[in-house]
Structures are given as structure tokens and as C-alpha cells.
């Protein structure tokens, strides 16, 4: 069975490669902002534990990812509760939230890639992470992004490669 891919590979206006994901959640923008900025909420779906100093130039400390060393990033832009972007491991992550009718929120994640060959790998990783966020938003239990051998990461990765998304970068924990 082929993976249902929700990410889009694109080239931004400035020429940088990116993968983008969009979801609509049945929560007001303030609640979705918590999913994106609160360390306790991020722990349910983000690949690393992230402690954010929520101000432009603020430090973000990343820990707890079994496949990556501890690291720090920097908040690049913040417009609460609509936008957060930060640098992480050479990439720029952008979270954009838009309030919709009936208390819903459009969530858009854009991973601006350091290198195009990370697109399939990162896209597959975000599929797994965002599935955990989707479950959290529905108030369902999820094992989170690090579900072990049962995680569908490889199926998503293969799907992105079959779709022609650039690949070839090392895969932490496998390479």
C-alpha cells in the first residue's frame, strides 16, 4: 500500500528548497499556538524536546531525539499567535497559523531545507510527527514521533522518492 503523502516539495522565491505541510484543526488559533510553542505540547509530536525562549533571537534547546545530538537553534521571527520561525540544524522551520471560521485554525509548516537532498528524508519524518500532532489535536493517544520499528517512516520515505522528491542525504539512526 502506498503512503498517503501530505507534504509538497517546492522551491521558494529565493531559490531555497522546502517541504510544506498544511492541516486544519478544530481548535482556536490560541490552542494551536500552544501545540507549536509549549514544551509540554511539543513533546507529544515534535522530533526533539524543544525549550523555546519565545522572542526574536531567543535560544531554542533541542534534546531527547534518540537519533540526533543535543543542539540549539535561534528564533528568527515571532508574531504570536500567527507565526514562529527558527533555525534548527541548518534548516529553517516556519509555522504559520491562520484563524478560520467556526474556531478552526489552518496550520502550515514549511521546512526550508539546507540541502535539497534532505527533502524526502525530512518529508517522511514530518509525516510521522504531524500524524502524532493530528492525534493530539483530536485528543487521542499517540506514541509520538519515536514509535520504534512500527513507525511508517520508511513507507513515507519510499513514497517521496517514488514521487521524485530529492533524496540521498544520510538518515540518522539508519546510516
Question: Would you state the CATH class?
Answer: Alpha Beta
* Low-confidence region ranges: none
* Tally of contiguous helical segments: 4
Write down the secondary-structure element order.
EEHHEEEEEEHH
Strand content: 25-35%
Shape: globular
Total domains? 1
Oligomer: single chain
Largest beta-sheet characterization: 8 strands, antiparallel
Can you tell me the CATH superfamily?
A: START domain
> The CATH topology, please?
Alpha-D-Glucose-1,6-Bisphosphate, Chain A, domain 4
Mean of all residue-level pLDDT scores? 92
- Rg, rounded, reads 15 Å
Distance between the termini: 25 Å
- Kindly state the percentage of residues in helix: 10-25%
DSSP E strands, number:
8
- Walk across the major sheet and give the strand order: 1-2-8-7-6-5-4-3
CATH architecture: 2-Layer Sandwich
The computed structural class is: alpha+beta
Topology:
Elements: E1 8-11, E2 17-25, H1 29-37, H2 39-42, E3 49-52, E4 59-63, E5 71-79, E6 83-88, E7 91-99, E8 105-112, H3 119-137, H4 153-162
Antiparallel strand pairs: 1-2, 2-8, 3-4, 4-5, 5-6, 6-7, 7-8
Helix pairs in contact: 3-4
Can you characterise this structure?
With 175 residues, the chain is an alpha+beta fold. It has one domain (8-162): Alpha-D-Glucose-1,6-Bisphosphate, Chain A, domain 4. The protein has four helices and eight strands; from the N terminus they run ββααββββββαα. The chain has an eight-stranded antiparallel β-sheet with strand order 1-2-8-7-6-5-4-3, with helices on one face. Helix 3 (119-137) crosses helix 4 (153-162). It is globular and about 40 Å long.
